[in-house]
Amino acid sequence: MTPFGVYVHVPFCASRCGYCDFNTYTASELDGSGASPDGWLEAARREIAMAARRLGPRPVETVFVGGGTPSLIGASRLGAVVEEIRSEFGLVPHAEVTTESNPESTSPEFFADLRSAGFTRVSLGMQSAAPHVLALLERRHTPGRAVEAAREARAAGFEHVNLDLIYATPGETDDDLRRSADAVLDAGVDHVSAYALIVEDGTALARRVRRGEVPRPDDDVAAARYELLDDRLHAAGFGWYEVSNWSLPGAECRHNMGYWRDGDWWGVGPGAHSHVDGVRWWNVKHPARYASLLADGASPSDGSEELTDDERYTERVMLRLRLAEGLDLGLLDAPGRAAADRARGEGLLRPFTGGRAVLTRRGRLLADRVVTDLLTAAPVRS
Ligand SMILES: C[S@@+](CC[C@H](N)C(=O)[O-])C[C@H]1O[C@@H](n2cnc3c(N)ncnc32)[C@H](O)[C@@H]1O
Ligand code: SF4
Questions:
Q1: What per-residue confidence (pLDDT) applies to 49?
Q2: pLDDT at 269 over 80
Q3: How far away, in angstroms, is 211 Cα from ligand 1 center?
Q4: Residue nearest to atom 19 of ligand 1 (CA)
Q5: pLDDT digits (tens, 9 = 90+) for 66-80
Q6: Given ligand 2 and candidates 13, 203, 285, which is best to mutate, with the most ligand atoms within 8 Å of its CB?
Q7: Has residue 378 got a pLDDT over 70?
Q8: How confident is the model over 138-174, as pLDDT tens digits?
Q9: CATH superfamily of domain region 4-259
Q10: Among the atoms of ligand 2, which is closest to the Cα of residue 139?
Q11: CA 31–ligand 2 middle distance (angstroms)
Q12: Domain assignments of the chain as residue spans, ordered by start
């Protein structure tokens, strides 16, 4: 049976970080719209009940509450969402139940309440240990608060804690990133996600880059920083299991593995995406519209598509090649296999063992190019 997870999107933030284009709203942006955390919770519960009616019995293996800033709405609302999922679907024994949190809206009591509500994993956005980098990213917390929050989560009984980093921000130095890696390791977490800063269209950062106030992040710098971070984490016993994710053995995020291995998930909340049995759909983005549709007993879906065989093939190659477990070479046909042989010859894939294509470290830096080569060589498959 395909693994099944539930993603829950919390669309609220205290302020908007200059680089972020996620579907999230500040209080002033929602002013007058009627949207509120309680309205969101009621609507999310309705959507969970609707999902359970639609899918029938399907125990949930993983829950991931993301955002936005889930910690902003408090542990009791987050707990209520988990309770609704438990009562409507049921959770498998040892289900993984994660929430993202921002360091500045957490406390020891918050983490203790999350534990009591059944959460098993916390993911905190740290981004950097350098104050000037956090300032450029327009983060609201100090570097110290992120590390402290990770320690508080562990002290509250969370065995699984992730810290997110962003690297290659303009103005960041190699030493800044070394200090960020050391701070993450000091915090005693078992998982790290790290992304090169992307300048997303329509963000405040993109406008600053366009005006020449901030230089554009440099690809070569990003590649060197990735290697620096990978070395540091590797030396501390962390292995990469996806190009942007490292963990101690056994601490991989099961929910995200579900996305990458073609699993099924229902996305609850404004703008959330779902994927069940080869059909993909997405919800309306605005929290007020989302809540009003559900209050009327209507579906919050804003569109759907059935994936064609070509699309499924593309997704499989794209996502699985980024995993350390690699891509089954049997999925590729002759032209795709020939492209994989060429990539291996160029040192982008490891020598094939167990019939799998696995990226080398240089290949991880050029993962998009390898994926494109494999796909353009073998465009049609089931
Ligand atoms: C959208 S946030 C949601 C969780 C939480 N609000 C936070 O800020 O940590 C999840 C993660 O996405 C990453 N992210 C968001 N926008 C990004 C961008 N433009 N470039 C690189 N990473 C980004 C950050 O590492 C962030 O921690
Ligand atoms: S706190 Fe997280 S979700 Fe909110 S704006 Fe910042 S990066 Fe985006």
A1: 98
A2: yes
A3: 23
A4: 198
A5: 999 999 999 999 999
A6: 13
A7: no
A8: 998 898 999 999 999 999 999 999 999 999 999 999 9
A9: Aldolase class I (3.20.20.70)
A10: 6
A11: 19
A12: 4-259, 310-377
